[in-house]
Amino acid sequence: MRKFVNESLALAEKELKLALRFKFSFFTSGFVQPLLKIVPFALVYYGFFAFGGGQDIGVVTGANFFIFLVLGLIADMFFEMGFSAFTTRFLNEKYWDTIEGILMAPLNKISLISGVGLAELIAFAPALALFFSIVFIIHAVSINIIVFVLCVLLLALFISLSLGLIASCAVLFNENFVPFFSYLRMGLVFISCFYYPIDVLLFETMGYTVDLRILALLNPFYQANFLIKEAWLNPGFVLADGIFPFAYLILFALITPLFAIFMFNKLWRILGIQGY
Amino acid sequence: MFFLDPAIEVKNLSKIFRLKQHSTSSLRNTFFPNFQSFKAIDNVSFKVKKNETFGLLGPNGAGKTTLVRCLTNLLLPTEGTVLIEGRPVSDSVYKIGGMFSYSMIYRRMTGYDNLKFFAKIYGVKDYKARIAELDSLFELGSWLDNLVENYSLGMKSKLAFARALIHNPEIVFLDEPTLGLDPNIALKLRKEILKMNKTIFLTTHYMEEANELCDKIAIMNEGKIIVKGSPEELKELVKQNQVVLISVSKQADELKKILYESEIVHAVSPTHDGFKILLRQKSDISELLLILSKFKIDKIVEEEPKLVDVFVKLTGGKIEKVCE
User: Could you tell me if B117 lies within 8 Å of chain A, comparing CB atoms?
Assistant: First the structure.
């Protein structure tokens, strides 16, 4: 356990020191990039409710759309920081000629996931604190809800970091996988419904009814997003209401890191590091 | 570990890569390249004893780096096994340290932070004391507090060497440790290597370095180990050969052509003012003098064959291509 903690802290410290080499981009990326994501949605919702005469889109109303968006943004940030963390870092380390040092070392891969996750959390902490403060000021909740939401977010982060570890392994071998995994990430964002209600995934086109809601329900990031919004926005929420999605998340959080580590250990030594 | 287990044991190791054959002349080939198998290591076996310095020599592309990657758990061999003190290499990561030229150090961090990071992930208990020890060994001094991106090549190499030793490994893999270094720094690193009471696996292009440092040497060419033995044993292989250094100022190209075509010449390599000629037999010197008599030769010096001549003799085809 002590080894795991030491390794995770050492990795987090290293990642932060590397990131802080260029401080301006480090501090702006945490705030500016997430805000750029919600501004278009906020404008559309505002126009729809204020000028379009709309009453609601699923659970989104004129009164709650802003909190809905910011909570979705927080969930998306946890997804994004996990999914992209390894790919970006490992590609950098590949070109810096440092990846062998990590791969040769007796580093527990769970420590790798935790260390990188911790570094991401610290890096995004000021932005997350700001966004949490905004939703708390607009719609205060109990400490229990906050703890529950943080647990859900950490589980989602662990799942996305694990998926990122698999992606990074493929990318180290062949950079043709970079666009593949970025489209996969976009696809997951689409069926995670961070910025719109799940009802949007049921639509009619060219005379056919398309129902993509089942994909969203199978997606653990949708379940995380659903739990966060349900817990924060529904005053009558009790844990029993969300027990199935929560168990589903825990199951994924247990299976995906093990699968990711198995795949990573198998693949990188067989496939090698190519393209530099 | 059993007492008699060698430090490193490699059994029938092969590594085959599947390489893309790109052709710029055909668009079809760019998108649908042909694949070709390339055997980078071909059935290699050897043992390295505890506390022995083992040198691996070979021309570029011989398979040295691929072999070191297999030995350090960075690449899975296609066939064969690698044992470190009798156990699979994947179970022996604490026992090995590696320095691959001056890679594996973060240039955006200070030297101290680099050493601290690797000390922590290798579980070094008193990392401050260990860093201080390595600092005095490699004379890193105040540079430790500077970002590595500001280091000279020599300082980067010293830091990479210190990094490889941070967890005090029993076996150290050094892949071209003095590549590109000025002679003084290279000499200092060699002295440090000589002082270490460890098993060392060294790959190098520098024959004198191998001669000075290694107890055993293997020469690798086209994925195979073509010869191995002590430096003295290897020099025996060229005992019957003769090395002649000549200085020539005129008709050098014409002389080179004749020497290449001559049956008595095993290899020719250029020097700053002429050629170094490796004759097949010592007795061929008279025939060489006959060839040289047709040219205006400034100086002729006979020399005893060295380790580099063993290398030239065994991998000669490559050297001739370089000459041409």
Answer: yes
